[in-house]
Amino acid sequence: MATPKTTALDFDPGLIPSGTLWLPRASLSACLRGAMVRSTVGASLGDEQRLNHFPATPLCSLSWWFEGSSVLLHGERPGLPGALTGTHLTMPGRWVLTGPQTRPGASWCPGPVHALMVMLMPDALHLMTGLEPSNLIDRFVDAATVLPPAWIAMCQQVQDAPDDAQRLEKLEDFLEPR
Prior knowledge:
six-stranded antiparallel β-sheet, disordered N terminus, 20% helix, four-stranded antiparallel β-sheet
């Protein structure tokens, strides 16, 4: 069973503890590098607090939205905090697969969101799905259109699970024999 790996830190009173990092089972560490759950449900946030920043990374990711949505941001955010500018691209699906990213990026959640992102090693993604990570570089794709049927069934099971611990357990149970 997945166990949240968090520490009890003092938070700046202006921040809400909206994210949780989960570490995979040791047996999955060569393919699944980690998972992050973010929930802002029930929080009153300004635009700047709904921004998500992502580093450039050689890893691939698979994300679920259980509540709310997110848009990809391209361009600058000059001027006042909350003044979103540039191009906004809607995420391509409820489950999104990304390849390695050659540059940092950002997304913005227009309202409350509860989401899960898992980071996968590119070679493991290839071995388990047959997908070429090099074809996914700097791309965000609807996972339902590219993943094999067994993976789509797993994505639905994760989506339907009642809580984050059970979601991670379903994902890990699926990956373990692979």
